[in-house]
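Researcher: Sequence recovery benchmark, item below. Answer with residues only.
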């Protein structure tokens, strides 16, 4: 497994070694001891989610209250998505910045993002299937969003899909109504960097 730390602290890219022959291929998509070593504490798997998206679908930017927050290990076993990690931690040195990784069924990379970070993606092909390994279960009262098209975030969303077709963005009603970064920060909705880091240090000490 090849590991690369992203430009946003608390996020990593994992690229598996693929073993293939005339029958197909095999890979280790997730290794708990390795992930735990990289992130500095155990990854407790509480829930696995799957979404299937048409080309042009935008999902996010989603995040959860910390504590407990929700860490995610994200893969795309079918199709392709541009996956985006956004630093929503107020007070972080990289607050408001983002990094991107292409997740697809060719390189079969995965992205890990720790508690306090925001997550979004754009589907580049019909039927793109994203699988999320989550450290906590669904809690609608603690889960929030920021507008993925907010100019302050400056995410350069792709305009063409995997096959070269022009993309028409589709968002859920909830994501379309999400506040921009400045509004979310002013309302106290976003995680606090110091509180997030204290929470993670507590996890590491357990």
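Model:
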């Amino acid at each position: 497994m090849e590991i690369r730390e992203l430009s946003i602290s608390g996020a990593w890219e994992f690229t598996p070694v693929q073993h293939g022959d005339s029958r197909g291929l095999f890979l280790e998509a997730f290794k708990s001891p390795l992930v735990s070593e990289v992130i500095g504490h155990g990854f407790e798997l509480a829930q696995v989610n799957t979404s299937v998206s048409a080309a042009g679908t935008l999902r996010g930017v989603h995040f959860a209250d910390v504590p407990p927050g929700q860490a995610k290990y994200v893969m795309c076993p079918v199709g392709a998505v541009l996956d985006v990690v956004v630093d929503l931690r107020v007070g972080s040195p990289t607050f408001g910045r983002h990094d991107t990784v292409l997740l697809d069924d060719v390189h079969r990379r995965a992205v890990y993002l720790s508690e306090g970070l925001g997550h979004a993606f754009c589907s580049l092909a019909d039927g793109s299937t994203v699988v999320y390994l989550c450290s906590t279960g669904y809690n609608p009262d603690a889960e929030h969003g920021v507008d993925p098209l907010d100019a302050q975030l400056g995410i350069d969303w792709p305009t063409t899909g995997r096959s070269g077709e022009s993309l028409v963005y589709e968002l859920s009603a909830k994501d379309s109504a999400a506040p921009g970064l400045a509004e979310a920060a002013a309302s106290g909705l976003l995680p606090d960097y110091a509180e997030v880091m204290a929470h993670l240090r507590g996890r590491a000490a357990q």
